[in-house]
Design a protein that fits this description.
It contains seven helices and eleven strands. The chain has two domains: 87 residues, Orthogonal Bundle (Arc Repressor Mutant, subunit A); 110 residues, Sandwich (Jelly Rolls). By secondary structure, it is α+β, with helices and mostly antiparallel strands. It is globular. A hairpin with a 2-residue loop joins strand 3 and strand 4. Bound molecules: zinc ion. Zinc ion binds next to helix 3.
Length: 212
Amino acid sequence: MAEIEHHLTEPLLAAYAAGNLPQAYELVVAAHVSLCVECRARLGAHENAGGAVLETLPGAALSAGLRDRVMAALDAPPPAAAAVPRRSGIFPAPVMAALKGQPPRWKTLGGGVRQQILQADAEGSARLLYIPPGVAVPDHGHGGLELTLVLQGAFSDKTGGFGTGDVEIAGPELEHQPVADIGPPCICLAATDAPLRFHALIPRLLQPFFRI
Ligand SMILES: [Zn+2]
């Protein structure tokens, strides 16, 4: 994997360490941390600072299983090369857990774009996206924070380029239309809030885009 250039922010790492993130975001953070030595170290600092608080937060019960598995992995002796990702194929361990160890069951969205929803609740949703090279991902109207982790290939939007392992953090002010780079299909893990807005756009509002 090329060197990761786009990392998690301190507030995201702190919220993750405290167990305060919605599950969809938590999955993206866990997946990036499992791939990224730098963020793993930064998370460790938050864990040390906030470990006592973690025990008392009600939010920690939301997905303690996932976090426990990640923490267990982080506590394990580091491999000989610290940069060796813990993953199965292109999917980091937290994604494999969300897939229950099975290959993705892609659902076609049109234009060659496919998705599999991994997790959805009132706070947000997480999905895998498969974007053929050169194809644009429609702006799906996230109302708040969107986290996108590249698992294979790369994409670009007006903020820059994102390669494998990079995470894009987009707020509602960003009207972006990522385009998959030429090369292998771009496979991303994306988490958004406002899932109803996303669903309302499919298929009606996506249709003009997919005629391209
Ligand atoms: Zn990182």
